[in-house]
Amino acid sequence: MRLRTKLLCLLAVLALVAAACGEDEEAPEATAAPAPETTEAPDEPEEMDEPEEMDEPEEMDEPEEMDEPEEMDEPEEMPMAATYRLGIFSAPTTDNPWAALDTEAEIWNQYVIPGQISLYTYQGPTYTVVPALASDASPPQVEADGDAYSVTVNLRSGVTWSDGSPITANDAVFTFNTIKKYNGLGGNFPSIWPLARDDDPDTEDDESSQGVSSVEALDDYTVKITFNFEPGLAIWPLSVGLASIFQEAFWGPIVDASDDFETLYAASGLGAPNASGFDSAEWEPGAFWRNVALDSYWDSGSQYTVYSSGAVEYTTGGTTETWGGDPGGDVVADYTEGPFVAESLYSIYTDQNAAVLALTEGEVDFLLNPLGLQAGLRNEILAAPSLEVAVNDQNGMRYMAYNTRKFPMNDLGFRRALACMIDKDFVANTVLGGTAYSINSLVPPGNAYWYNPDITAPCAGQSTAERVASAVQIFKDAGWTWDVEPAWDEGNRDVIPKGEGLRGPGGETIPPLTLLAPGPGYDPMRATYSLFIEEWATDLGIPLSAEPTGFSVIVDKVFVGDPLLWDIYILGWGLTPFPDHVFDFFRSSNDSALGGFNTPGYSNPAFDALADEFDRAKTLADARDLIHQADAIIAEDLPYVTLFNTPLIEAYSNQLTFPYTTILDGLQNVGALTGVVTIG
Question: Pick from 89, 92, 133: which is nearest to 114 by CA?
């Protein structure tokens, strides 16, 4: 079989494991946390930095028995005999894997719901694109097919659902036809399974779109995907090739009986067939979620050897395949696929403090935490002798979003003036005690190849006095006026007088505005940030009130609720190695009112044209240039204000052994490796 290695080798490099922080580094408490070290993606895969070596965990059956910590039980003594206890501090909201990709697209649902299958997948810790259901070592090329374009993918036999039935091309056909039946669905679906649409000649608007027009099963193990345009790598393979596939036998009858997607999403997915090593077995809302390991997992016993070059050697049934180019550099992971635990039990805690307490007291083995830790909790974990700590660069961001559908957030001058007042470095370094670092780009600095270092924050480097003067001038230039204009009082080191009677360019007064942000129990960093933004807004005469709100409440309000019933919010994103989110979050066709992820309702024809060009990009270099251009447009138009990121500190029992701990976005991004962890 001829390997098409160029794309996969480059992807392995660009996934940027080399940018991750060393696992033994300790971020200082009282000084500014620097932005994580990053490396430019090299031209040759061999030039990746070597992840730090993980120390062998010491045995500690009981905390008080520490006479001989150097001794370890043989791992084979305890396979399938232990419960992997994980802590989470926000409750799952659904057991339905379809809904978890759309209206319930929360990280907490992704943690607990067992995974589906895709044609290709990311291989940790390098994020090389490797086969999952596909048998082709690298994604086949799209070819012209009449007036359209298509790709034919051969599938592996022997891959089974958790109920033991084979996964075939018919499941892929069913998945796409279901999405088409429900008009493309929303949330993640428009990006992972983009639906081709024809223009309706009876309407004035152009409803056409580029995407997948059909999926066909040429036989049980050959699938043909047809596009209505020549897709670039953003669509194939890095969207459709990584898209979830669902089992027809289980979901088909539900879809056949459902005229609307809400009925499908309301169906329970507990115990539904999936392609992982676990079945979902029990969910007690607000208390726990339990998955049980499968004795007959199709990939159990397979051997994975991952090299720093991004290459992967996969051995199963005595046969070895090589994916992602020629093996080179050091081995960064070498392990056998499990699972080696009997079950994974996710205990739900009221907030991060309670979850950390459970971890330090030995109630849980691993804390799934996408947020990063505040200084006090970090010190508790570092002081616990029974815990290990891994520190990685985080592939995510916390941000503030304006609702550009309504006044005054639809006014660029308003958005810029308020953004100018936000001193990100002051909050990160001083207020948050150096446990965070400010970010300006939509791509975190740890994702070094795609990161744009030229993006700067509004009024960057200015003092508070200068920010006030700049914000006032921005308002004036945009036609805004005050009854009482705000000004900086040097003697009092404060804004005196504060703005009063602020009016828009047409004389409009600003109604009371609400800034929704997670409360201090969920994320004290964003809660604190919201209070400072409220104060800066008040200085300018903007009647903005910060309102601590439950995480899931904010998500429901801004993603699936009435798009006019919110003003400004603060949330965060966990991102994928290939940063197509830069377009997915701001395409006008992805408006959250239409089911997409464009919560601000941002609409810019020039940006949409750039997004269409991105979909056709054939090379990584072209895609990066377009992402940088899009990043710059958003930094100018400001539907989002990126705020900060944190080094991802993860703590776990020293009774756990992982095949690797150095990975961009941490172990939480690979589900705490439930399928390969060993205990004891």
Answer: 92
